[in-house]
Specification:
alpha/beta; TIM Barrel; binds pyridoxal-5'-phosphate
C-alpha cells in the first residue's frame, strides 16, 4: 500500500471522470480521510502533495493536528457532540457535519470567542438511517434559515453520507437528491449562504458522485488502506 501512488491514481481517476462529464477537475477537491490512521501516514500523503484531510473523531483529530507538522487543511467530517466543539475551535477549516441548530449555535459561540468565522456544511441524512447523523430533507430549509442568521459561521453547501450500495449506481439517486436540495436552498437567496460545495462520494462511489456534481470527495480506504 503506497500512499503516494494511491493519491496519484485517485487524482487521475478524478481527472478522467471530470473529462467524461465536462467538468473542470479543479472544481473537485480530494479530501483524504485519515481517521484511525497514524500521523506518519498523513505526512506521507502531504509529501505527495495532498493538502486537505478529513477526520471523524474529535480527540483523534486534535491530537493529529498538533502532531502533523506539514501545512495542511483540516476538515471535520464526523458526528459532533456539542460539548466537544470547543476542542476544534480555530483548528479546522470546515465542519461538514452540522445537522442541528444547537450544534450550529455552539460552533458560532466558540468561533465568536476569537471573532472568527468558520465554514460549515449542513449534513443531510438522505436515507433517514438511524445510525447516521444528518437532518432530514424536510427539515433542511428550516435549519438553513436558522443557521444562516448566526454571525460566526458561513454555510457553504451540503454534505451527505448516503446508504451504502454494492453497486455505486444504487447511490446515484441520493447524490442527485443532494444536488437538488442545494438548488432549492440556493433559490431561497439566504444572506451569507452559498451552495458552492457538495461534499459527497467516498472510496467506492466517488466517480458517480462527481458525475452528480460533487465538489469534495472524501476518500479514506482507497488512499490509506483498510481501517
Ligand atoms: C470514513 C468516512 C469516509 C471515507 O470512507 P472510505 O470508504 O474509507 O473512503 C468518508 N466520509 C465520512 C463521513 C467518513 O466517516
Amino acid at each position: 500500500m503506497n500512499i503516494a501512488d494511491n493519491i496519484k491514481r485517485i487524482s487521475e481517476r478524478i481527472a478522467t471522470i471530470c473529462q467524461g462529464c465536462q467538468r473542470d477537475p479543479a472544481g473537485v477537491r480530494l479530501i483524504a480521510v485519515s481517521k484511525k490512521k497514524p500521523a506518519v501516514d498523513i505526512e506521507a500523503a502531504a509529501s505527495a502533495g495532498q493538502r486537505l484531510f478529513g477526520e471523524s473523531y474529535v480527540q483523534e483529530c486534535v491530537a493529529k493536528i498538533d502532531e502533523v507538522g506539514s501545512e495542511v487543511e483540516w476538515h471535520f467530517i464526523g458526528a459532533l457532540q456539542t460539548n466537544k466543539v470547543k476542542y476544534l475551535r480555530g483548528k479546522v477549516a470546515m465542519i461538514h457535519s452540522v445537522d442541528r441548530l444547537s450544534l450550529a449555535k455552539e460552533i458560532d459561540r466558540q468561533w465568536g470567542k476569537d471573532d472568527a468565522c468558520v465554514d460549515i456544511l449542513l449534513q443531510v441524512n438522505l436515507g433517514e438511517e438511524e445510525s447516521k447523523g444528518g437532518t432530514t430533507a424536510e427539515a433542511l430549509v428550516d435549519l438553513a434559515r436558522k443557521v444562516a442568521s448566526l454571525p460566526n459561521l458561513r454555510i457553504k453547501g451540503l454534505m451527505a453520507l448516503p446508504p451504502w450500495g454494492a453497486d455505486p449506481e444504487e447511490v446515484r439517486p441520493y447524490f442527485r437528491q443532494l444536488r437538488e436540495l442545494a438548488e432549492t436552498i440556493d433559490a431561497l437567496g439566504l444572506p451569507k449562504v452559498t451552495m458552492q460545495e457538495l461534499s459527497m462520494g467516498m472510496s467506492h462511489d466517488f466517480e458517480v458522485a462527481i458525475e452528480e456534481g460533487s465538489t469534495m470527495v472524501r476518500v479514506g480506504t482507497a488512499i490509506f488502506g483498510a481501517r
